[in-house]
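Anyone able to model this chain together with oxa(dethia)-CoA?
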Amino acid sequence: MITKIIGTGSSQGRRRVSNQDLEQVVETSDEWIHSRTGISSRYVTEGEGIKAMAAEAAEKACIQAGISPKEVELILVATSTPECCFPSTACQVQGEIGAEGAAAFDISAACSGFIFALHTANSFLVSGTYKTALVIGADELSKLVDWNDRRTCVLFGDGAGAVVVRAEDDGKFFSAVGSDGSRGEILTCVSRSGGNFITKKQPKMGFIAMDGQEVFKFAVKKVPSCIEEMLKEHQEKPEDIRYYLLHQANERIIAAVAKRLGEPAEKFPMNISAYGNTSAASIPILLDELNREGKLNRGDKIVMAGFGGGLTWGSALLEW
Ligand code: UT7
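re: yes, here you go
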């Protein structure tokens, strides 16, 4: 069996926040943010939360796939920002959309999460365990950034992207993921810490902390090498790939990856300008936009690649 994407959907936080809006919050400028990252605005939630965004993206993907949520057998949500430890966001989505027959669980692999979730769903589909799955990348990083820290708060946005995948008889799907836990300290967010039985201290929430330049260097090396390895392993030529959909963290990272692969910039669509870095949601939101704009044709070969905290990275190659 071969994994095929048969529907896509996405949603974003309700409030649009421009770089000019952020100039009122921290000492920054539209010029700095745009020239260093490519970001002009982002969307943040206004209380609707991750459950609503993920469920909306999932419902749109099911409608486009022409299936009822009742046909979904597996729901995977890649997220670093669940509302609760339990129930998982995947179980919350299941309840919201009425996918009664599905098994549902979350996957934590930061900004690479969508690729990890797709890789996991693929294993279930090719093994014959399930035929139809919903794979969602959803993050609400606005609740984890320190709104006084200009080095991080200008970078992120909230959103969700979903795909329905189905086991089919023909097509092409390969994926690979990797991790390096020894370098985890360059991008961290301690979820809750300090709670202690002896001192009776209550736990405190942590914020996102990042060594931006180290993450940048990691991304511009790791992303092209994992794409090249995957293409080589499956005897695909870079020039035969229609689109490279990369995690939208920084326009300069995407340009550097295109250069290293020797591929033209037009093959690397971007929407970071409007959304900022939406973490696990960035790749499926971009895929959904291309799909709804009619830019994907049957048989197009598409590469997706992500990287992020963990450290983690992953890539997928599929035929549309
Ligand atoms: O999806 C998760 C993965 N994350 C990433 O992929 C992020 C990868 N890294 C990056 O995208 C870039 O490293 C950043 C956009 C985060 C930072 O860009 P940079 O060119 O590496 O800037 P920098 O950190 O070297 O900072 C340069 C200067 C510093 O000032 P000094 O020390 O030179 O005086 C910063 O304090 O820019 C300052 N700065 C800012 N100035 C205005 C940092 N943030 C801001 C800001 N506004 N928002």
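The longest strand covers residues 2-12.
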